[in-house]
Amino acid sequence: MPADTSIKLHEVIKFISKSKKMTVLTGAGISCNAGIPDFRSSDGLYNMVKAKHPKAVVRGQDLFDISLFRDEMSLSVFCTFMESLYKSSLNAKPTETHKFIKILKDKNKLLRCYTQNIDCIEQHINLKLDVVQLHGNLHKLSCTNCFSQFNWNEEFQTLLANGLNPECSKCMDKYQQRLYSGKRLTGQTIGLLRPDIVLYGEHHPQMEILTQGLNSDLKSRPDCLIIMGTSLKVAGVKSLVKSLSKIIHNKGGKVIYVNKTKLSASSWKNYIDYEVVSDCDEFVRMLKTEIPDLFLTQEQLDSEKLNQVAVKGSSLNKPIVKPEAKVKIEPGIKQEDAIQYSPEREVTIKQEVNIKQEPIVKREVESVSVKEEPIPTPPTTPHKPKQATKLKRKSPDEISANEVHSRVKRLRPRNDQLSSPASSINGSEEEEEEDEPVAKVLFENARKGITLDQH
């Protein structure tokens, strides 16, 4: 590969990796590896159909032209060809290119996929809502008269395989209703069913819807367009590519073309930035090698990160292998007495440290006298606390009985200060019963010369 080509290919890979809003346009080239026979080879679909209709003179390109409906023989060849193509599409498997488009969707990189194919292989990998079929849907049948759509069934498939178009059931019901009601049947025709595809020279029945969708995508400002498997010879597709290219270039994006055949450099040089001449699936495999993370799901990426962390952690836990230390043997030291360091056996030399113990010095603790301060009077107390007065010591003969009785009265608790509920119920009789022993104690103390501080 030339150096210039290698550099450009590296730029393509880097740009695809960084792109966030990608638009993809696909053609028949991406379905060749899906199991659908091509049209022009010796064992292609056209030669298979030709074998069933040897008298028909129909070219391959005429099978997709609106003019074939003018001739019954050409129409019969068309029906047989479409039934064979439909049967092949049912057994077709998504290619690497189809899977690549699905990956872009899963990574939130895909803005829209426009396809010229009618085989509906994208539906096998849940891409139906993200794909715009520019040339119709082979898996649907439509009426040539009322344009009603139908799904394929065994009856329709058998008729088409034999070169016959099924009649539209809705047109038939309407015709019979007018017939039984006695209404005129002038101008009433019964339509025929044909595959719901767009032929050359035919107006697209959903052109307005496609135009609205395209304008919406252009407003989203895509940053990349990848064209895969198409020769860009259809006029409508050419116009689509040029419109997308202008928007993408205004945003600083790129247009990449991938196909087996080259384009005309003169007509597309202002619209296409990179042209890769390759099979589409081979190009995708190359991307998978160069950008592996793009093809991994989020779960696979998370699992890979965990494995990397685990490998780093295990490498940190491994013992560090140190080289064997060389020990210089001094004269007079035997070889067996020398210490050699080896990874299998570590020798730890403990150094003895003499710690000089200092004598324990006892510290004398000075005694501190704490002066008790009187408890402050609560703010609710209306009077100030009285200072304690000391009674003078009296001799036993000087203490009279009346003085003893007055002291007992001062020590007796009031009714509202009794702690026991029973004392408040029994009244003053119990108080008088308790006065006598208390008085005796005080009297005896007074006789001994003991006095009490009054508070």
TrEMBL record:
Keyword NAD: yes
GO molecular function: histone deacetylase activity, NAD-dependent; metal ion binding; NAD+ binding
Region of interest: Disordered: 365-455
Short name of one Pfam family: SIR2
Entry keyword annotation includes Zinc: yes
Residues where Zn(2+) binds: C143, C146, C168, C171
GO CC terms, sorted: nucleus
SUPFAM superfamilies hit by this protein: DHS-like NAD/FAD-binding domain
Residue numbers annotated as active site: H135 (proton acceptor)
The Deacetylase sirtuin-type domain, residue ranges: 2-304
Superkingdom per UniProt: Eukaryota
Segments of skewed composition (Basic residues): 383-393
Signal peptide extent: none
Sorted UniProt keywords: Metal-binding, NAD, Transferase, Zinc
Chain intervals with Basic and acidic residues compositional bias: 365-374
Biased composition (Polar residues): 416-427
Entry-linked InterPro entries: DHS-like_NAD/FAD-binding_dom, NAD-dep_sirtuin_deacylases, Sirtuin, Sirtuin_cat_small_dom_sf, Ssirtuin_cat_dom
PANTHER family, A to Z: NAD-DEPENDENT HISTONE DEACETYLASE HST3, NAD-DEPENDENT PROTEIN DEACYLASE SIRTUIN-5, MITOCHONDRIAL-RELATED
Family according to the record: Belongs to the sirtuin family. Class I subfamily.
UniProt name for this protein: Sir2 family protein
